[in-house]
Write a structure and sequence with these properties.
The complex is a heterodimer of chains A (323) and B (286). Chain A has 13 helices and twelve strands. Chain A is an alpha/beta fold and 323 residues long. Chain A has a single domain, classed as Glutaconate Coenzyme A-transferase, CATH 3.40.1080.10. In chain A, strands 2, 3, 4, 5, 9, 10, 11 and 12 form an eight-stranded mixed beta sheet that branches. In chain A, strands 1-7-8-6 form a four-stranded antiparallel beta sheet, with helices on one face. In chain A, helix 9 links the parallel strand 11 and strand 12. By secondary structure, chain B is α/β, with parallel strands linked by helices. Chain B has one domain: Glutaconate Coenzyme A-transferase. Chain B has an eight-stranded mixed beta sheet, sandwiched between helices. In chain B, strands 1-16 form a two-stranded antiparallel sheet. In chain B, strands 4-5 form a two-stranded antiparallel sheet. In chain B, helix 2 links the parallel strand 2 and strand 3. Chain B is globular and about 55 Å long. The two termini of chain B are 25 Å apart. Classes of the chains: A alpha/beta (323), B alpha/beta (286). Chains A and B meet through helix 5, helix 6, helix 7, strand 8 and helix 8 of A and helix 3, strand 10, helix 4 and helix 5 of B.
Chain lengths: 323, 286
């Protein structure tokens, strides 16, 4: 195959055989109880230097309680897949956890701009779709996939994509390297103790991500009986053997919404936005993360039952999710 | 209703540049086509305005995988991925799934916003000023714009009528238009053939592209806009159609729907440059 042009962006080298060997040696095949605390899950499965992917974002069904636990444990040098993200990248950068970001889309306020200017943060260009597609390639166990975009742009130049001559048609096609993250974080509506997880609603790429990541942490609004999973197998998004840890996290996307269950807390985002502008994210993190031992303590002491009730009330739609 | 659309003076309408652009786009939405709309925000507002007022059956997909939803109005202030935004879709899928729908040629139009655009419809959403390694101001990145602008048959791009938006040279080409404008430029870099930017829409004007040279061409003016005024707000000089279409002004009904149902509270649409026009003629008032 003739390579016509190559982007100069750094990329996590795809290693399908390395991934297979990891699966062979590390992934649990049995139906065992995987429920542990967020503290244990992050401590055991997120290491400094890991490549971390997550589904959705801090606005909608993102694994926000796990973001805060990562910050609380002061994980360092993470490489994030920022596809379809929002202020979550800024939050993790403000927490000092991130050194590289593969960019699809992210909120890019003062935190990101400062970190880039000071050379603390390296960005690599992709797009939302390209990152989801790289996860799809990973989920198929192959080293790359061809696709019909990225070519011709500066985004291509700053990515790890390649323009090649397709050996079948003789036409030109872009290739992107498969992504095999170290860690996937997925927040779901329901999950059993074995890790059979249900996402209700549109989902970005929860299944692809869970399939191709070495370590998979599910946080779930609700833990349901394995029997319930088997009664409605079609509702399972992620089967158990991809999953390493199940964390019970009601309001796990706080301050974001989990569609069908609760709406978002807009006031909280304004507080984070103000902290960014005023260069006071350390104070924000102290209040919401470091001074709190857990997600549960934060919900109790910082959010409060009244706010949680309002968030539940503000979600008026259950149809399609639970009905 | 959050605020009356009718301005202080009798018979006038006041609106922002973003609201005007949303209305211009809503006027050209075709009910019998499929649209791929980037995230939440003004491009989606434009489609929803058309859907709400005169094209209820128009189908669209969004990046996170909702297919042909019928949103509940008023939409929540944080509409991205919200249950009311995805209500009564025909399917809830994933990003790879809807991107594949575009790759297969099912998406007639992509609907996007740009920070900067050049004469061939290439556009920037990555950074402004400085260099890639040392940007003056970093923005969010292409998001889904690259795949949408590459794979939909026709791309509609909204931006503001400002000199810093219509530039000779982009600070960064996040997503492709006609690239260098030469025949087959998109195909040479692997993009599907027969695709490309179709319209660029601002508060003041509408542009198309020449079939041969692929250069941007001014084809329409808002009632309040002048040719000289539009050209003064562009770094490059576009081609100019022999006959310029006179676009419609936003109506009071459209503005009311934007403000009360689509962007209640004006979270996105009330920020910007305000203008007041005569409701009957669309000419500037006051």
């Amino acid at each position: 195959m003739t390579v016509i042009a190559s982007g100069k962006g750094e990329f996590l080298p795809p290693d399908p055989d390395g991934f297979r060997a990891y699966v062979r040696d590390h992934k649990e095949r049995r139906l065992v109880n995987k429920v542990i605390t967020a503290q244990e899950a992050v401590s055991r499965y997120v290491s400094d230097g890991d490549y971390v992917a997550y589904d959705q974002n801090i606005a909608v069904r993102g694994p926000a309680s796990l973001f805060r636990e990562i910050i609380r444990q002061r994980k360092r040098d993470l490489w994030l897949a920022a596809k379809f993200t929002w202020t979550d990248v800024s939050l993790l950068v403000a927490g000092g956890c991130v050194s590289r970001v593969d960019v699809g889309w992210m909120e890019s306020g003062p935190v990101i701009n400062r970190a880039v200017k000071e050379g603390r943060l390296k960005l690599i260009e992709w797009s939302n779709g390209a990152l989801a597609y790289r996860l799809l390639a990973g989920s198929l166990g192959v080293p790359y996939l061809p696709m019909r975009y990225l070519g011709g742009t500066d985004t291509f130049e700053q990515s790890g994509a390649k323009l090649t001559e397709d050996p079948y048609t003789g036409r030109r096609v872009c290739l992107v390297p498969a992504l095999y993250p170290d860690v996937a974080l997925v927040h779901v509506h329901q999950c059993d103790v074995h890790g059979n997880a249900r996402v209700f609603g549109a989902g970005v790429s929860p299944l692809e991500m869970a399939m191709c990541s070495k370590k998979v942490i599910i946080s779930t609004e609700e833990i349901i009986e394995p029997e319930e999973i088997r009664r409605q197998p079609q509702r399972t998004t992620i089967p158990y053997y991809f999953v390493d840890a199940v964390v019970h996290a009601p309001f796990g996307s706080y301050p974001g919404s989990t569609p069908g269950l609760y709406g978002a807390d807009l006031e909280h985002w304004l507080e984070f936005a103000a902290a960014q502008v005023q260069n006071k994210t350390d104070e924000y993190l102290e209040k919401w993360v470091h001074s709190m031992a857990s997600h549960e303590e934060m919900l109790e002491k910082r959010v409060g039952e009244q706010k949680l009730a309002m968030m539940r009330q503000s979600e008026t739609v259950r149809e399609g999710y639970y009905e | 209703m959050s605020e009356p659309a009718v301005g202080k003076a009798e018979g006038t309408l006041s609106f922002t540049d973003i609201e005007a652009t949303i209305c211009h786009i809503a006027h050209i939405i075709e009910e019998d086509k499929l649209y791929f709309v980037q995230m939440a925000g003004a491009p989606l507002f434009a489609l929803l305005l058309a859907k709400r007022l005169r094209a209820p059956g128009v189908g669209y997909v969004v990046e996170e995988g909702a297919v042909a939803p019928n949103p509940i109005f008023p939409l929540p202030r944080m509409m991205l991925g919200a249950s009311r935004s995805h209500y009564r879709a025909v399917a809830w899928t994933s990003m790879n799934m809807v991107d594949a729908h575009a790759a297969l040629g099912f998406m007639d139009y992509g609907l996007l916003a740009a920070l900067q655009i050049d004469q061939f419809g290439n556009f920037n959403s990555t950074f402004i000023g400085g260099t890639y390694d040392h940007p003056e101001r970093r923005f969010g990145g292409p998001g889904g714009a690259n795949e949408i602008a590459s794979q939909c048959w026709r791309t509609l791009i909204m931006t503001k009528q400002q000199k810093r938006k219509f530039v000779h040279k982009l600070d960064f080409m996040s997503s492709p238009g006609y690239l260098d404008g030469t025949p087959g430029a998109r195909e040479r870099v692997g993009l599907p053939s027969g695709t490309g930017p179709y319209r660029v829409i601002t508060e003041d004007a509408m542009f198309g592209f020449d079939d041969e040279t692929r250069q941007m061409r001014l084809i329409g003016l808002a009632p309040w806009a002048t040719l000289e005024g539009v050209l003064a707000e562009m770094e490059f000089e576009p081609l100019i159609a022999d006959k310029l279409e006179r676009m419609k002004a936003p109506s009071e009904e459209e503005l009311n729907i934007i403000r009360a149902e689509i962007d209640p509270g004006g979270f996105s649409t009330s920020r910007g440059k305000w203008m007041t026009v005569d409701a009957a003629t669309g000419l500037r008032a006051g």
